[in-house]
Every structure is written in C-alpha cells, then in structure tokens.
Amino acid sequence: MADTAVTCPVCMEAYMDPQLLSSCGHTFCRRCVKQMHPQLCPLCRGPFRSEDVRPNYALMRMMEPTATASAPPQSFTQCTDATLLAHQAMTEAPAAPFVANQDASQRIAKGLMHIGVPFGVSQLIGEEDQMIGLRIFLLDNSGSTSSYDGKYLEQGPDGKRNVVTCSRWQEIKRMALDQAHCQIATGTLCEFVLLNPISGQGGLQEGIDICSIDPSRGDAEAQLAALRGMLDKVRPNGATPLAQSLRQIHTRITTVHGNLARQGLRTVVVVATDGLPTSTGGYKPTDAAKNEVVQVMRQLSVDLPVFLVIRLCTDEDDVVAFYNRIDEEEELPLEVIDDLESEAQEICDKGNDWLTYSPMIHMIREGGTFVKLFDLLDERKLNPLEARLLAGHLLQLEDWAPLPLSDVKEFTNKAADYLQKMEKVYDPLQRRMKPSIDMRKLRQAVKTHLGFRARFQGLLHVLLPCVFNQRDIARQALLRQ
C-alpha cells in the first residue's frame, strides 16, 4: 500500500501533476483541484483563488525518476557565511547576466550554488523564483535605527562565527550588503532605497538616495562599492513615513520598471524597518498612519504582481505585534521575518526543530522567495510529506539520487547516510556549528499519521458540494418545467 504522505488526499492515488494551494500550503493532483467547486481546500476548508494554484515544484522534483550515480561525493561545504562565500563567487566567476525567463531557473540555481547553497535547494528556488524580475529593498534610516540593540553574524579570522552587537542601522546595512552579494550571484536586478532621502532634491538621486544593482552591467565590485558608499554616508535621522515611500515604489515599478510586468515578471519589495509607521511630516506613530500603510500595501498587491517582505530589526513588542497582525489578518502576499536568532527560535517553537535554521536559509527568506516550504516554517509544524521534501532538498547534491519519498524507513536511512557527508552549519540558538538536520527529530517528523478516516473526510469535502450542486441543478430544471 502506498504511503499516505505521497498520495493525493482526494483521489487517494499517487500524485499526478501535483498542484500547491499557496493560500494554505496543501497539495492535490491537478485534476482534483479542477473538480473543487466551490473553491475550498478539502483539508482545511480555506478558500482559494485560481491564481493561488501553482505547480508544487518541490514534490515534482523529488518524484522525478533520475539516473544518477549511486556514490555521493566525499564532502560538500554548505553556506554558513553568506557574505564570505558570495564574495568568493564574484571574484572567482563572472557575474551571471540577466537573461530571458526560460533560462532564469538555471541562472538562479547556478548563482545560488556559487554562494554555497545545496544543489537541491538551489534547483528548487530556481524553479519557484524564476519569475522574479526585480527586488527592491526599502531601508529604514529613521532616527530610531541608531538604537544600539541590533546584531549580525560575522566570521572571525579563526573561522568561528561571532554575534556582533551593533546599531539597528548597522544590522540593516549588513543585511543590504549580504543581499546585494546574493542578487549579483543569481543575476537578479535589485534596488536599495532609503526610507528618508538625504539628497534634499525632492526625488531619489542615484548613489545618494537609491542604488541600483544590475548584474547585466558587469563590474560587480564597482556596483557593490557604490552601494557601500551610499550606506556609509547615512546618519540615521527622521521619522518612519512608510506609506509615502511605498507609494514612490509603486510609481517606480509602473514607470521605470513597467516592462517587467508586461513580461510576466514579479517584483519582491523588502521593507527593512524597526518602527511603527508615521504620517508624512509627523514623528509619532498614529492609527491613521498604520491604516494608511495597510491600504498602500493592499494597493501594491492588487495593482501589481508584488510580493512583500517585512524584515524587522527590533524586538519591541508593539512593533512586532503590529506587523504580525497585518500578516495574520490581511489577505496580502506578505511575509514577516525577524532577525536570525529570533526567527530560529520561532521556527523551533512551531515544532520544526529537526531543522537547523542556518544563515543560508535566513538569507534566502529575508530576500523573498516563493518556496512555500520556507514560508511555512514559522507558521506551523510541517506535515510529514513537507518535512521529507525539505530535508530531501537540503541533502540532495548534484549527481545524487533524490531521497525516496514513499518508504519512511528507507528515506531516513538514506538521509542519515547523506547527512554524514555534509559539512556542519551554524546554529544561531546554540551559537555553534552542528549538522543541518537532527536525524532523531527528523524520524519523528516524517512519520505519517494520516489515517483512512482523515483521507475519507477529505474526499467527502470534495464530493458533497458536487452532489449538492447537481441536486440544485436538477431542482431548477424541474421548476422550469
């Protein structure tokens, strides 16, 4: 009997062309999704739209039959310091140019491998994020970012990772430079915009208020130097007029980058901030300013193919609560991410403690990704299939056979063998190097607990609405007679 974790909960057969409902994270066969009327997920009863249905690349890749070598390489170094490895990638290999969409998947995957991301994860991100044509990073340089309670991870001369205490602005600056390295490696166009322009000319002046990183122009070092120079000149000052800046970004996407939407490409807007929004000209957060930000975010997501990321650089409870409430209550394409250590703790608390939340995973998430497995990490405990998929991609290297999904024992045995060949990663909670996966906890996480009753209920959730719809159609026909 097939493992229930790798069978569609509707038809109870092996997945055929698996489709993911991005609104809730559940997966079904394409044919089963098409039969769902009304459009309600059979498992959680959550509504979904046609645009929420997209291929489950993670599952597709793991189910593909591959003819690969049986013996794994002797070693592989996983990325544990994004800046160091990304810098090596730029100096040892030319920057990947921005190319047409059909080549974007491999362009992104190769770039990520250059900066140390495992093969399986790189391929998955390349497939999921190939339609991202632009990333815009809105950097909060308000006066509150001078507060000295920020932190970032740095690799010392002895190779050890150390947590550096700094100002919030220095944390934002470090994040921006790490992301610039990553976007150059993957060949993705990106812009870094200051929340409070300092040129004083009423607009965004290149090199002073905004810095563009375009890998197709080449000379990556010069572009990075320009970004570093702009950030070094910043002296935190002013309020937090987020709504005003997001409106400017809306205009910029529709004018300067209007061709991207016409090509079917999406934009990721990352807001790195430490405070509550203020109204234009005001210095104190108000309810009106908060509501205005929500309205502008909603307008961005409705008018444009935009995905929003809020990267919080503070532990202040009221700030964290405000943005988390937006994420929970508003139907927006939005992800809220904290600093490395706080995010690792949240993911552990959700029951995903089998995974070591490394700086590599954090860097990918804070830059915005459509990989649903990463999105779910801080929302809920991954189900057995999701845990297998993520572990399988983290452990898969080029020329390795994918880990088997249908047999739990075989999966965990091979996962343990693969893990022995992997280099350790940095654990922000224990602040030391350790394996990327805790095999004892993974064995528990991948066990299938979905029984016949749960699968039968999922089937009923689909069939009953169809029966009632047919009954209503018949009743209407009789009335017309």
CATH T-level topology of the domain at 82-385: Rossmann fold
The gross shape turns out to be: globular
For this structure, what is the CATH homologous superfamily of the domain at 82-385?
A: von Willebrand factor, type A domain
Poorly predicted residue ranges: 66-102, 450-460
Number of helices: 18
Strand content: 5-15%
User: Nearest-angstrom radius of gyration?
Assistant: 23 Å
Describe this structure in words.
With 481 residues, this protein is α/β, with parallel strands linked by helices. The chain has a domain at 82-385: von Willebrand factor, type A domain (Rossmann fold, 3-Layer(aba) Sandwich). Helix content is 44%, strand content 14%. It contains 18 helices and 13 strands. The strands form four sheets. The chain has a six-stranded mixed β-sheet, sandwiched between helices. The chain has a three-stranded antiparallel β-sheet with strand order 2-1-3. Helix 10 links the parallel strand 9 and strand 10. Helix 4 (101-114) runs antiparallel to helix 5 and helix 5 (119-128) crosses helix 15. The radius of gyration is 23 Å and the shape is globular. Mean pLDDT is 84; it is low at 66-102 and 450-460.
Features:
single chain; 481 residues; alpha/beta; Rossmann fold; 6-stranded mixed beta sheet; 3-stranded antiparallel beta sheet; 18 helices
